[in-house]
Specification:
heterodimer, A: about 260 residues, mainly alpha, about 0% strand, B: about 250 residues
Chain lengths: ~260, ~250
């Protein structure tokens, strides 16, 4: 948490006054008359962004666990594909992956009558399933590497102790290995989640209306450039701050100590 | 039947990707060269900003330190796509204001230069943190020794701090380079003619989406893997004479 006394140094008070001055100037001098008209759309966009973030982080993490496990201890025929997957995801831009899935699969599917007549078709015609898929795979790719290190980092003695108690392998994984690994990656996980937040605006390029898309729409409708972008930046900073705080709280709760100087990005 | 189709499909793809005009391979390679130019420029600009930023954060006054903290925090919390838009508009606005003040008309901003400016400022924030950490990892006794020999600050930096911190900085800087190459793709959204946008144009005019996106992905992957090899060598060079870290950590 921010120490109040550290804020009360003279130069910081001056800086805060300057900042307050800038905020007041922004409120007075810039144009905000478009806000009421676009507020409902903006709320919808915020909801889409947050929903996309939570769903892809959860799904991506679930996918990252087997990916990390396969790389850490799996036989070569599981480890090699997992390694290749992580390398490919991390080696190519997310925007390209997103467009490959959306335009590529999106232009491929209509050619098959059995897909068009299936019950999934109403979903496959929309853009958001491709956004969820691309973001999930991306998170899994980055997090898979992290989990590999985490699984390897669990002290051997703990696993041996569990084994010597006669614990079955699955129980051992569930009770000891996975919790220890998650404890190890908790700080990294917070950073990766903020990175995932910063990846979400890309989905606007495939017509998913998230908060970034709303701001682009304001810009193209009203030719107001800076105001929507400033609000957008403030929104992302706030959400990133909440994620950092949330993980800090989780760390204190789980580990008993929070690392205060952990970097956010 | 399927085998025949497959070979036919591949023949078509090869034709689409050929370097001469009916194929789009030349466009892709031109896009790749633009991407690499922007990435190199932005990386260099980011390193310069990062070096000054790191020194400012470590040795600067209170105000400098707080301003730099705001810079790195804000840049790293806001999505690159949003930053690219903001910096792009700010940059072209400033240039146009200067040009208007000097009595000129509207200036068309060069795509490569704009890309370098925009991504460079973003890279600078990350480079600041990486270099700050690396400089802090240099044993303070080494810097004190240099000072006690009467070395001026700049010479200390050139002869002692930078060589000694390289080993700590290279892994982070390697990551940063990969981020630079991949972030160039985001410039496609603003309309710069780099690899991803060229790919999309080629794909949408031929309807062969998979062919082109996979080809572009392959090019990006080659850049990544090639850079990985180069940086491994640089790291080996930067760590020469230092004890191996194998076995400790990852």
């Amino acid at each position: 948490m921010i120490d109040l006394r550290s804020l009360m140094q003279p130069h910081r008070i001056v800086m805060m006054l300057v900042f307050a001055g800038i905020v007041i100037w922004c409120a007075m001098a810039l144009r905000w008359d478009w806000l009421p008209k676009y507020a409902p759309l903006a709320l919808q966009g915020i909801w889409t962004t947050l929903w996309l973030l939570v769903v892809t982080v959860v799904l991506g993490f679930l996918l990252a666990v087997p990916l990390g496990l396969a790389q850490a201890v799996g036989p070569w025929y599981l480890a090699a594909p997992a390694k290749a997957f992580c390398t490919i995801i991390r080696g190519t831009p997310l925007l390209l992956q997103l467009w490959l899935l959306y335009y590529g699969l999106g232009s491929l599917f209509p050619q098959f009558p059995w897909i068009r007549s299936s019950e999934l078709w109403p979903y496959l015609r929309q853009a958001w399933p491709y956004a969820v898929l691309a973001l999930t795979l991306s998170y899994a790719g980055y997090e898979g590497e992290v989990m590999r290190g985490a699984f390897k980092g669990v002290a051997k003695g703990q696993l041996e102790a569990a084994k010597s108690f006669g614990m079955p392998r699955l129980t051992m994984f569930r009770r000891i290995w996975l919790p220890q690994a998650i404890r190890n990656v908790l700080p990294t996980l917070g950073g990766e989640t903020i990175l995932q937040l910063k990846a979400t605006p890309l989905v606007a390029t495939i017509t998913v209306v998230d908060i970034y898309a709303v701001s682009s729409r304001v810009r193209s409708d009203t030719f107001i450039v800076y105001e929507p972008l400033i609000l957008l930046a403030v929104f992302y900073i706030l959400v990133a701050g909440f994620i950092a705080l949330g993980f800090h709280w989780l760390e204190v709760k789980v580990l008993g100590t929070g690392n205060r100087n952990r970097s956010a990005g | 039947m399927t085998g025949l189709l497959e070979s036919l499909g591949l023949a078509q793809s090869a034709e689409l990707l050929s370097l001469s005009p009916p194929g789009w391979g030349g466009n892709l390679l031109r896009g790749l060269s633009h991407s690499l130019q922007i990435a190199f420029g932005a990386y260099a600009l980011g390193l310069v900003i990062g070096l000054f930023g790191a020194y400012g954060k470590l040795y600067g006054g209170k105000v400098t330190r707080d301003l730099l903290a705001i810079y790195t925090t804000v840049i790293r919390a806001v999505p690159e796509l949003v930053l690219i838009l903001i910096l792009y508009y700010v940059g072209s606005d400033i240039i146009n204001k200067i040009s208007a003040a000097m009595g000129g008309g509207r200036v068309e901003v060069n795509g490569v230069a704009a890309g370098i400016w925009v991504l460079g400022v973003v890279q600078g924030a990350y480079a600041t943190e990486i270099l700050r950490g690396a400089i802090q990892a240099v044993p303070p006794g080494q810097i004190e020794a240099a000072k006690s020999y009467g070395m001026p600050a700049f010479m200390t930096m050139r002869r002692v701090t930078i060589p000694a911190m390289m080993g700590f900085a290279v892994p982070g800087l390697a990551n940063l380079w990969l981020i630079a190459t991949k972030d160039t793709a985001l410039l496609a959204v603003v309309g710069f003619n780099e690899l991803t946008l060229e790919t999309r144009q080629a794909a949408s005019s031929t309807r062969a989406y998979f062919t082109f996106f996979l080809a572009a992905g392959f090019l990006y992957l080659m850049v990544t893997l090639f850079s990985g090899g180069i940086f491994a060598r640089i790291e080996k060079w930067a760590r020469r004479g230092q004890p191996s870290l194998k076995g400790g950590g990852r």
